[in-house]
Structures are given as C-alpha cells and as structure tokens.
Amino acid sequence: MLLSEYDFKSTFPSEGFLDVTETAENFNTKEFDEYVNNNLIDELGKMHIRYIYDAKDGSYRHIVFTTDLKNIYLVVVIDLIKKKIFGHHVLDLNKEYGLSEKNRNINLPSQVCRINKIEL
C-alpha cells in the first residue's frame, strides 16, 4: 500500500532510529520480495537495499532502497509489532529538501540522519 506523507511520517518515533543495516534479521523473505516486486519497480527501475533503520522503540523498520533516479528512494515500512508490511513511500529528496538541478548530486546521508534522528 502506498503510504501518504502523513502515514509515512507517523512511523517516525520521537526517540528516532538506529541504523541496523549490517545487523538486521531477514523479514519473511518471500512476502517481502513479492511486495517489492509488485510495488513501483517498473517506475523506479533497479533497486537495491541501501539502509535499514529500526525505530528505537521497536515499532517500525524502514528499509530504504536506492533507485535509478537520483535522490529518489523507495522506503518499505514494516510494522515490527504486528510482523507485517505496513506499506511503502516514495521519498523524493529533491522535493523534500529543495535541491536544485546543480546540487542534486550531493550526498545527503548525514543531513537526513540528523533531521530524522538516526544514529549511525
């Protein structure tokens, strides 16, 4: 299910996130693969997992996929309490952070982490 900006942001806990990219356990691989393959893969092109963030309160996991489009990510949100996929959101950093054409190639991870309270 495509999440609205409101629904997506409602999955951000006040305590922030932890970067668990290297340590996260797999989530129902078959269900996850089917979900990703059936949601926007045609529009966004090849995707690769870039980051995995768990909410510090244990409520949600955000799996961030890079796409063929510059600064546009697909974020799959997993409800860790219900152990099911909550939905997905297309995160356009060009729009979110007002990037102009000339500076769209800059790397934003530290700024995004700071704003979204992500500990690396």
Question: What can be said about this structure in brief?
Answer:
By secondary structure, the chain is of the alpha+beta class.
Your description of this structure?
By secondary structure, this protein is an alpha+beta fold. Helices cover about 25% and strands about 30% of the residues. The protein has five helices and six strands, in the order αβααββββααβ. It has a six-stranded mixed β-sheet. The protein is globular and about 30 Å long.
Main features:
120 residues; alpha+beta; six-stranded mixed β-sheet; 24% helix; globular
Strand fraction: 25-35%
Overall structural class, as computed from helix and strand content, comes to: alpha+beta
Spell the H/E element sequence.
Answer: HEHHEEEEHHE
Overall average pLDDT: 81
Distance between the termini: 28 Å
How many strand elements? 6
Q: Estimate the helix proportion, in percent.
A: 10-25%
Global shape: globular
* Rg (CA only): 14 Å
Largest sheet: 6 strands, mixed
Lateral arrangement of strands in the main beta sheet: 5-4-3-2-1-6
How many helix segments?
5
Low-confidence stretches: none
